[in-house]
Design goal:
The protein is α+β, with helices and mostly antiparallel strands. It has one domain (17-90). The protein is 41% helix and 15% strand. The protein contains two helices and three strands; from the N terminus they run βββαα. It has helices at residues 46-69, 77-91, and strands at residues 17-21, 25-29, 35-38. It has a three-stranded antiparallel β-sheet with strand order 1-2-3.
Length: 95
């Protein structure tokens, strides 16, 4: 049963995009330009921070697609359980 819908989502609305903070570190910004995540620091390589930022920026779209696909994977209990767990992790709900 899909217990998550757009009205329940508490995260910053997507689409998110990757940008930089003062031209130096990778960051993720919401559609209104608000900073969602800071993905760079001196303890990780720039390319790793950029990869982290890209993954985080894709999160709202990935979550939306996973929620839509949830019904399709019900016939595969292992995959369904993993999908429910990932959705719950992202939304703060129960698997």
């Amino acid at each position: 049963m899909n217990t998550t819908n757009a009205n329940e989502q508490k995260h910053t609305p997507g689409r998110w995009h990757v940008g930089q903070i003062r031209g130096q570190f990778q960051a993720v910004y919401g559609r209104l330009g608000e900073q969602v995540a800071d993905c760079g620091n001196y303890s990780i390589p720039d390319k790793e921070g950029e990869a982290n930022a890209r993954l985080i920026a894709a999160a709202p779209e990935l979550l939306a697609v996973l929620i839509e696909c949830e019904v399709l994977v019900k016939q595969y209990p292992s995959i369904y359980k993993q999908a429910r767990a990932a959705i719950a992790k992202a939304t703060g709900g129960n698997p």
